[in-house]
Design a protein that fits this description.
The protein is mainly α. 43% of the residues lie in helices and 10% in strands. The chain has a two-stranded antiparallel ribbon. The N and C termini lie far apart (69 Å).
């Protein structure tokens, strides 16, 4: 006989939501943060175990970052709504990480240009030819991907 364990049976100080409120998000594990996002488990599994199983399935955050909706919904307990929520949360995290302040970014060297696009391009699966358009003060006024190549080459002729 399987013992049904609901999150309400966990002491309040050990529940992810309460721990976040008391200690802050930095003190929670990845599984606890996902448990908060997922909101609920299944009738046979509490949300904390579902979140742990999700992370174990993808061997951590690195592979989960590139998960498709089909891969997520193949996990028992993750339906379309929870899968979409996970993908949206990951995308928001990536956008926040790539966010550049509204002030103009000045390019003084090739390294400055590389630094500007590196975080966004770091995890791309194909080569991208990106152009940064500058004004007369070397401030970026526009960024555009001109060409997307193969896995390891971008053939582009000006």
């Amino acid at each position: 006989m399987q013992t049904e364990m609901k999150i309400k049976s966990v002491p309040k100080e050990d529940r992810p939501r309460e721990r976040l409120l008391e200690l802050g998000p930095a003190h929670l594990s990845n599984a606890e943060l996902f448990a908060i996002l997922l909101g609920s488990g299944t009738k046979d599994e509490p949300v904390t175990l579902l979140a742990q199983r999700l992370l174990m399935h993808f061997e951590g955050l690195q592979l989960l970052r590139d998960a498709t909706i089909e891969e997520l919904t193949a996990i028992k307990g993750i339906g379309t709504a929870k899968g979409v929520l996970i993908i949206a949360a990951i995308e928001l995290g990536q956008r926040l990480h790539r966010y550049k302040p509204a002030e103009r970014y000045t390019i003084r060297s090739p390294k400055d240009g590389a630094d500007y696009v590196m975080e966004e391009m770091r995890n791309l699966q194909q080569e991208h030819f990106v152009v940064l358009f500058l004004n007369t003060k070397n401030h970026i006024v526009h960024r555009q991907t001109i060409f997307i190549g193969s896995l390891n080459a971008s053939i582009f002729f000006p």
